[in-house]
Amino acid sequence: MQWVVVVAALLVATVAALPDVAHQQQTINRLLYKITSPIKSTFTDLKEAAQSWNPKEHTDQCSDGGVALNRLLQELEDHRLLEQHHWFSLFNDRQREEALLLVDVLLHCTSFEGFKNNAAYFRERMNEGEFVYALYAAVTHSHLTQHVVLPPLYEITPHLFTNSEVINKAYAAKMTQTPGNFKLEFTGSPKNPEQRVAYFGEDVGINSHHVHWHLDFPFWWTGDKIDRKGELFFWAHHQLTARYDAERLSNHLSPVDELYWDRPIKDGFAPHTVYKYGGEFPTRPDNKEFDDVEGVARIRDLKVLESRIRDAIALGYIINADGSHTDINNDHGIDVLGDIIESSAYSTNVAYYGALHNQAHRVLGAQADPKHKFNLPPGVMEHFETATRDPAFFRLHKYMDGIFKEHKDKLPPYTEADLLYSNVRITDVEVSELSTYFEDFEFDLSNGLDTTENINEVSVKNHVSRLNHKPFYFNIHAHADHDDKITVRIYITPKHDENNVVLHIDQNRWGTILLDTFWTEVHAGDNEIKRKSSESSVAIPDRVSFPQLIHDADEAVANGAELPHKDTRACGHPQRLLLPKGTHQGLEFWFDVFITSGDDGVHDDLDVNDHGSTHGYCGIHGEKYPDKRPMGFPFDRRIPVLKTFLVPNHHGQTVKIIHH
Ligand code: CUO
C-alpha cells in the first residue's frame, strides 16, 4: 500500500478543501448508523452515493489512480466478497484481506467527498463487519479525518460488548415498542473465582481501549513507519497484564498463571455473548487440552516458534529473512522482538518466527470446534473487542510477557549513572487520598437492532457496574540546582503478594503500573510540581456517546456551529481505571517518582505541549513516541541491588488504596 507516499504531498493541497468538521462528523455518524440496515433515506447524500455514485468514474479522486478501487470493484463484480449478515473476524485471512481492500480505497481518497461517496457505496455492498473495521481504521489513519471523533464501538456493535440475555431483552423491547434499560451482569457465577475480576476483563472502556490500540497499531500496517510499534505491543499488553494482576490482588486471587501449550487450559469460559449473525460465541470447558486447529496451526509448530524466539533471546540476535543478524541485546531489541512475536508486517522473518501471538489468539478462539465440524463462529479470543473477557486472554498475554521478560532480564541492570540526574533532589511527595468505588454506567444498544423506516425508534439501553476512583493529585517538592526541563515518571507497584508477604523490588518490579509521565520545568531552588489524576498521560476520559455525537453533529451542521468535542483519540486506558481497586482496609502500593532530565523527551516542546495527552500506552499519533528511554524505565530491567535506586531524583513511599 503506497498511500503514505502521497499523503504528505496531498496534505497541503487538501487541507484547504476539507469540509467543515461538523459535516465530517455527521457523515461518519450516519455511515455507522444502524449498520446492518440500509442507509436511511433521509441521509440523502449518502443514499444517493450508495445508489448512483459510480466509483469507476471518479478514479481521478484517488491518489493511486484508482488501483485499490479497481481491485475492490473487481472482487465485488466477481462475487468474491463475503456476504452481508455474516460474522467478521480480523484474524480470518480472507475477511481481513477484503476489509483491507476497503481501507486501501479510503486511504487513497484525495478529498473527503470521495471518501464519503466510496464509503457509502461499499457500505451497501460489503459485509457490515468488514465495513465497520475498514471505516474505523481509515478514519484513524486518514489525514482527511483527523478531527472526527469515532463513536464508542460498544454503541456501534453492542453485541460484542454486552451479553446475550440483554440482547434478547433489547429485541423484545423493540418488538413490543417498550423502552428498556437492562442490567448487564458480569459473565459467570460466584462459584467461579475468576468472576471476581470479570468487572475488569468485561469493562467496556478496557475493551474499547484494546480495540483502538490495535486500530492505531495494526499488525497488518505497511504504511508510514509507526515509531516503536513492536515495543508498544509489548508495553501496552504488559501494562494490561500488570493491571489485571493488581485487580486480582484486592479480590484475593493469585497472579494469573501463564499458558502452557502442553498443559490443559485451566479456566474454561462461557461467554454468554451472541453474534448479531452467526449464533452464540462458543464455550470452552475447564481444563481443555489444546487441540491443533485445522487451517490455523498445530500445537507442535507453535512450540517450535516459541523455541526459535527464545533461541534468539538466548543468542542475543534475530536471524532476518536474508540471513543477516539483528542484535537485540540493547534498548531497541524489545521493539524488534515485539514485531516478531505479535507478529506484525514489520517482522523481518515471518517464515522463521511465524506469528506466535496472533496464531495463539486464533488457536484459543477455536478450541470448541478445532476441526470446524460444527461450523461454530470464532471464539471471543478472535476479536479485540471481546478477548479480555476470557481469562485465557490474560494467561496468553502472561505467556507473551514472560518471553519479553526473558529478553529484558538478559540486559545489564541500570547503573547509578543511568538513573542519576544530579540537578534535582526530591524532598517530599504529598499524595491525596486514593480511593476506588463502583458506579453505574449506561450505554445505548439501539444501533445493534434492525429497523425499518416505518417502525418508531424506542430507547434501548443497558447499564453496568464499573470501577471508578475519586480524583486525586500529587504534589512533588523538589530542589533544583539550576533551571532545566525535566521528565517525570510516576509508578505504583503492589507491595505485597496475595499472601501478604512484602516483596523485594526485584520480585514485584514487573508488576509496576505507570500512572503518569510528563515533562515540565524546574527552577533553581525549591519547586512544587502539582499534577492531577485527570491529567494523566496514560488515560483518556469517557468517550462521548453515539447519541450525543449524533445530536451534536446534527445541531452543529444545522446552525453552522462548531462541535464541542476536543478529545478525538480513542486509544488510552480509561481514566476511571487509573487506580486498581483497593480494599476496605486499604491495599498498599509503592508510589515511586522518578525525575530525569528533560532531554529524555523526543520533542522539544513537551513541557508546554502534551501532543494529544494520551501517549503513555498509545504514543503520539503520527509522531515519535515522546520518551527516549525504554518503556517501563527504570523498572524494565533487573534490580539486583536496591541501593542503585537510591538516587536523590527518585522518591518512593507507601500509599494505600481504599475501596469504598
Ligand atoms: Cu491485544 Cu493479544 O494483543 O490482544
Number of strands: 14
The unreliable regions are: 1-18
Strand neighbour order, sheet with most strands: 1-6-5-14-13-8-9
Instruction: Assign a percent range to the helix content.
Output: 25-40%
What Rg, in angstroms, do the CA atoms define?
25 Å
Sheet with most strands: 7 strands, mixed
Number of domains: 3
Spatial gap, N to C terminus:
52 Å
Which superfamily, in CATH terms, is the homologous superfamily of the largest domain? Hemocyanin, C-terminal domain
- Alpha plus pi helix count: 21
CATH class (first level) name of the largest domain: Mainly Beta
**Ligand roster:** CU2-O2 cluster
Tell me what the CATH architecture of the largest domain is.
Answer: Sandwich
